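Work through this:
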Amino acid sequence: MITKFAVKNYRGFADRIEWDLSHPSSYSFNTFAIKDGIVKNGIIYGPNGSGKSNLALAVFDIILHLTQKAKNPHQFEAIINALHPNDFVSFEYTFRFGTNIVDYYYSKSIYGIESEKVVLDGNVVFALDNNNLTIESLEFPMTEENKKQLANSSNKVSVLGYLWSVYPFNSDHPLMKMKEFVESMLLFWNHEERGFAGLDEGTTNIEEYIIANDLVDDFSDFLKSVSGQEFKFKAAPKGDKQLICDIGDGVPFYKIRSTGTSSLTLLYFWTQKMSKATFVMIDEFDAFYHYDLSFKVCQKLFSLSNQIFVTSHNTYLMTNDLLRPDCNFIINKNNIKPLCLCTDKELRFGNSIEKMYRGNAFEV
């Protein structure tokens, strides 16, 4: 699981911003949102332009150089803060796998990786900085010439990616667990346009996927359970690419579904694949949802075992009936904090945290 993330000089984050998931409070309700002492589920709120989408893109920057999974063009656009165009962007990740802690640091320019370091349980595995590479010689025997070539690589490759590809790792090795974790991270959104990064290696026709995997009836049940909408679809042989609603002679689903239902279709597709996902973020997940539908979708998402976070403007979700104060985060002014750290007041189950938020009771 990810326990902490920080980034500096990335897009709108001129200064370092840290998102800490490792110190949940001791609330006795909605304990499903905490796993092994780490925040498992959460919602991130913030004013327009506060950095919700940028935070999501920053967290998923790691997949660009460590995986072959799908990337999105937004991840490559103007990553360096405009106020410091000549400085590197720096990233910090802390992962926990059982009792092992892996800290991963790197900085990058528009040309690629400029520095990189991995620390395992407090011990430096390797460190690349200023074209100098130090590496744990017992686990990764490497000649000085090889070190020099890797440190001075003209295409700015990742040392960690190189080690993964060259040295055999036991499946229980923390760095192998990190590899499996990062390769199964998933980010997606559906606002001005659809997009995703991670987990899959290419795009998919969603309706064709539903038909090919015999999920037509399950998809119909899903729509009814979360939104109350009843769609009856005609039987479709495998190979068909369109869902046809059983109305008259048949009406293509895409012609009668609302924008919100289209968004639910995307959500359904990804929930079918989430069993393979480790860390999931959905940006503006409820941009086209009724407030009650947003609540039901969150309940469904947070019942899964994955580490899942969403961003939203919908303060109807800011209630202890859904999560808890240490799982609702506010991002603003280059800071992100849970509600419980944004006030000196003791927050209890009976508090209307939405009313407090609207009354400016929380200070980031």
Q: What stands out?
A: The chain has two domains: 2-199+277-358, 203-276.
